[in-house]
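Key result, reporting period 2: structure in, sequence out.
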């Protein structure tokens, strides 16, 4: 099992408004690297859930770390034009010497703020799935150094190439968001075709096992080596000895983060570290090999230290 943490690029803006700097973000990344964790990750949103711009932060992280992978969990790829996204992502991958992993998802349009976010970027929210598929396909081709001519539903490119390209021969690595609760077969096909692996965020362990089997089946149909694909899960925890206090803080944090607590007990666990250890083991049994942990807490540094002291040694 490999461990990563989500850095609070949203949390930094939730309570205090305009931050003075991002030193706390960089410091948490350095702490994670020094402790031997595998990776650090940042989220994405434009206007619906304001936060630091993800690729810019990854560039900063690339200069303050040397070993950990740096990634997005998850980036809304369809918010961006694929040529601009490929150019930025390949540049950050070069800066980091090939450590970038882009977790990519379609994103939601479930409330007014989310729908307006797409419109603010000039994207019809109803087109985001097909636009996403074209974007990720073009991202992979451009960042591995192909000259691309493409005519699709959303993009029309003629003899386009970029420089620099990714240090990785296959282009910038990608993990495609898959959720059993979404219930659409298209997402499993998408992961098998477009990703170096997949990521789930909202599934129970038994559901994550079903995601694993569906992606495996779609990958094998396409002649892909499923065992070479990265299998990741993004979980949200709050580790306080008092379960009631942990639940209260997590609920306040998530409501402020999203404007609502959208997934109930699909988040969690909340309470002593033993609960987090048990839940991670259940996801590991369901097929996960990379666990990305977000702390639903207003004291991120303390939660990180507790995770390093009490959870990681047990796993």
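The corresponding designed sequence is given below.
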């Amino acid at each position: 099992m490999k461990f990563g943490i989500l850095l609070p690029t949203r949390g930094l803006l939730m309570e205090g408004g305009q931050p003075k700097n991002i030193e706390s973000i960089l410091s948490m990344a350095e702490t994670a690297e020094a402790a031997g964790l595998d990776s650090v990750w940042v989220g994405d949103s434009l206007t619906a859930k304001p936060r630091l711009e993800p690729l810019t932060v990854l560039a900063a992280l690339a200069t303050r770390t040397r070993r950990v992978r740096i990634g997005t969990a998850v980036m809304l790829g369809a918010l961006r034009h694929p040529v601009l996204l490929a150019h930025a992502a390949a540049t950050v991958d070069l800066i980091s010497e090939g450590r970038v992993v882009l977790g990519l998802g379609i994103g939601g349009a479930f409330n007014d703020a989310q729908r307006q976010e797409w419109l603010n970027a000039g994207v019809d929210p109803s087109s985001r799935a097909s636009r996403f598929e074209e974007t990720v396909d073009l991202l992979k081709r451009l960042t591995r150094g192909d000259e691309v001519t493409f005519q699709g539903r959303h993009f029309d490119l003629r003899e386009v190439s970029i420089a620099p390209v990714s240090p990785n021969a296959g282009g910038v690595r990608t993990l495609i968001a898959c959720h059993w609760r979404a219930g659409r077969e298209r997402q499993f096909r998408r992961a098998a075709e477009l990703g170096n692996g997949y990521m789930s965020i909202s599934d129970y362990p038994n559901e994550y096992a079903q995601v694993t089997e569906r992606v495996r089946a779609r990958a094998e149909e396409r002649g892909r080596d499923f065992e070479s694909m990265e299998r990741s899960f993004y979980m949200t925890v709050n580790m306080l000895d008092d379960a009631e206090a942990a639940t209260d803080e997590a609920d306040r944090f998530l409501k402020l983060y999203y404007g609502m607590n959208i997934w109930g007990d699909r988040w969690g666990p909340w309470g002593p570290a033993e609960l987090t250890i048990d839940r991670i083991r259940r996801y590991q049994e369901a097929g996960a090999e990379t666990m990305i942990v977000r702390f639903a807490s207003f004291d991120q540094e303390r939660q990180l230290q507790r995770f390093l002291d009490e959870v990681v040694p047990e796993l």
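The radius of gyration is 19 Å. The beta strands are 2-6, 39-42, 69-76, 100-105, 148-151, 156-160, 173-177, 197-200, 230-237, 290-295. This case is discussed further under Risks and Mitigation.
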